[in-house]
Each structure stands twice: as structure tokens, then as C-alpha cells.
């Protein structure tokens, strides 16, 4: 979206009264959300002077001019790893992909999370080998991330992406065969889809297009062979739950609830990893 008064400025915030998109310069802090200057001027809102409070997103994050900065950085990381994989071949994939426990004849050793390589739970979420897989995930990250990042703010958005990717990998580790490899940013993308559902519901948008998109995404997840459905489902559930905690946390103790939700999800993922590791070793 672009601000109705500044068409060259992208924004993810709407006026709580008329729902016109507004940029940080046009936001007027109100008792609930932000209002546009027109609503305040016409007396239809209860806004305060723009300088009275720092503009905040619906989750309490700081509103910034570039609402896609973190998304751009995540895409750059994925691109750098994709180029590295194309240059190094399968050797780099074998060292970074998500695999539970297996013997790798190329390395002549046992590898996997159960062997102490916990970093695979995160590195696999930024790793791609096939061009089509990379392009599809980056398109989803750019489009849906561009919706979610301005709504949450950078810090909460980073937490959402990392924990969605980690939760997807944890579910792969728990349910997939121990020697089955998995890679890709699908866990993060599906986490953003889950966040989008919660945000759309929070703003009382028409949910039909959102739910149709989610349904189609899940159909492709389970209908296509070779897709790691565990990463998709794990990311989707984690993203939805975490975003719900972000946007519905009471203002009087908002950060405590939000950071507590992040810590709780991290502990759940840790418990899954420890339990699965104990079972395999």
C-alpha cells in the first residue's frame, strides 16, 4: 500500500476510522491505533498531536520508513547461500541441510542434528538448491513479508521469522525419517502466512481471500511429492500463534507477554529437539 497523501511512500498501516493507508508522517496517535489527519481535522477521531507519541504498529513495534528492510536482508541471505550452493555443489547442502541422523558416505561420517549439529535447524531454513524452489520462496517472502513486517515492526518480525523457521525444522526432525533431508525457507514463508491470517482477522478484513490462499497453499503442500509438509505446518502454526500473542497482548504488559510467548515457543522447540535426540541416540 501507499500513503494516500504521499503516493511515493509505502506503508502497512491504515487509519482506524476510514481505513485509508497512512505513512509515519501522517499518523496521528489515537486511543486505539492511528488516524489520518482528515479524520482528526473533521472531528471524527480522538487523535492527539503526532509528536505526542512515537508511532507504533498494531503489535507495538516502532513504525519506520522502510517497512521491508528485514525482508530485504532475509532475501539477500537466501540469495547469498543459493549462489554459494551453485558454486560449491552438493557438498555445502550436505553440511547445512536439515537432517536428523544419517551416515554420509561423501564425508565418511555420521551427520545430523542428533549428532550434535544443531545449527542445521536454522541453516536449512535459508538454504535452497533448485532455482524454482528458491524463486517461489523468495516471491512469497517478498509479498507476504511486505504485508507482515510493517504491521509487527522489525524486532518482532525477526523473532517471527526465526522462530517459524526453527519450529518448521523441529517438526521435520520429530516426524520425518531420520535420514530424510529437508531445506528451504518454506517454514518461514508459512509462518508469515499464519501471521497474515491473524493480522487480517485483527483488522476485520474480508477473510475469504486469505483463507482461500491458505487452503490452496496446504493443498499444494500435501499434493506435491517430495514437499516437506512438516516444515510448512510447523511454520504455519508457530507464525499464527506467535502473531496472536503479539497483537492481542494487553498494552499494560505488552512486551512481557510478547517476549514470554517467544520464549515459550523456543522452549517447546527445544523440548522437541531434545526428546527426538534422546530417541535417536
Helix-strand blueprint:
Layout: E1 13-14, E2 21-22, E3 28-29, E4 34-35, H1 37-41, H2 69-88, H3 90-96, E5 102-104, E6 109-111, H4 120-123, H5 131-152, H6 154-175, H7 186-202, H8 207-223, H9 229-248, H10 254-280
Antiparallel strand pairs: 1-2, 3-4, 5-6
Helix pairs in contact: 2-3, 2-5, 5-6, 5-7, 6-7, 6-9, 6-10, 7-8, 7-9, 9-10
- Biggest sheet features: 2 strands, antiparallel
Molecular shape: elongated
Unreliable stretches covering 5 or more consecutive residues: 45-53
> What name is given to the CATH topology of the largest domain?
Rhomboid-like fold
Q: CATH homologous superfamily name of the largest domain? A: Rhomboid-like
As a whole number of angstroms, the C-alpha radius of gyration is 21 Å
Task: Based on the model shown, name its key terms.
mainly alpha, single chain, Rhomboid-like fold, 10 helices, 281 residues, two-stranded antiparallel sheet
Amino acid at each position: 500500500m501507499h500513503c494516500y497523501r504521499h503516493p511515493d511512500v509505502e506503508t502497512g498501516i491504515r487509519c482506524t476510522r476510514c481505513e485509508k493507508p497512512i505513512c509515519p508522517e501522517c499518523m496521528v496517535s489515537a486511543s486505539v491505533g492511528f488516524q489520518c489527519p482528515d479524520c482528526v481535522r473533521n472531528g471524527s477521531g480522538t487523535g492527539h498531536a503526532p509528536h505526542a507519541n512515537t508511532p507504533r504498529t498494531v503489535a507495538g513495534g516502532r513504525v519506520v520508513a522502510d517497512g521491508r528492510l528485514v525482508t530485504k536482508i532475509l532475501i539477500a541471505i537466501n540469495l547469498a547461500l543459493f549462489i554459494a550452493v551453485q558454486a560449491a555443489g552438493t557438498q555445502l547442502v550436505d553440511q547445512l541441510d536439515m537432517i536428523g541422523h544419517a551416515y554420509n558416505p561423501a564425508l565418511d561420517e555420521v551427520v545430523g542434528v542428533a549428532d550434535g549439529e544443531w545449527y542445521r535447524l536454522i541453516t536449512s531454513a535459508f538454504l535452497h538448491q533448485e532455482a524454482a524452489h528458491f524463486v517461489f520462496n523468495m516471491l512469497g517472502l517478498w509479498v507476504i513479508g511486505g504485508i507482515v513486517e510493517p504491521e509487527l515492526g522489525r524486532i518482532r518480525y525477526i523473532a517471527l521469522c526465526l522462530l517459524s523457521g526453527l519450529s518448521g525444522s523441529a517438526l521435520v526432525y520429530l516426524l520425518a525419517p531420520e535420514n530424510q533431508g529437508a531445506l528451504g525457507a518454506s517454514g518461514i514463508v508459512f509462518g508469515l502466512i499464519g501471521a497474515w491470517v491473524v493480522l487480517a482477522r485483527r483488522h476485520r478484513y474480508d477473510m475469504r481471500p486469505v483463507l482461500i490462499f491458505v487452503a490452496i497453499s496446504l493443498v499444494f503442500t500435501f499434493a506435491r511429492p517430495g514437499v516437506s509438509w512438516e516444515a510448512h505446518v510447523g511454520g504455519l502454526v508457530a507464525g499464527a500463534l506467535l502473531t496472536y500473542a503479539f497483537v492481542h497482548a494487553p498494552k499494560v504488559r505488552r512486551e512481557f507477554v510478547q517476549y514470554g510467548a517467544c520464549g515459550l515457543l523456543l522452549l517447546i522447540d527445544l523440548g522437541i529437539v531434545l526428546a527426538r535426540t534422546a530417541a535417536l541416540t
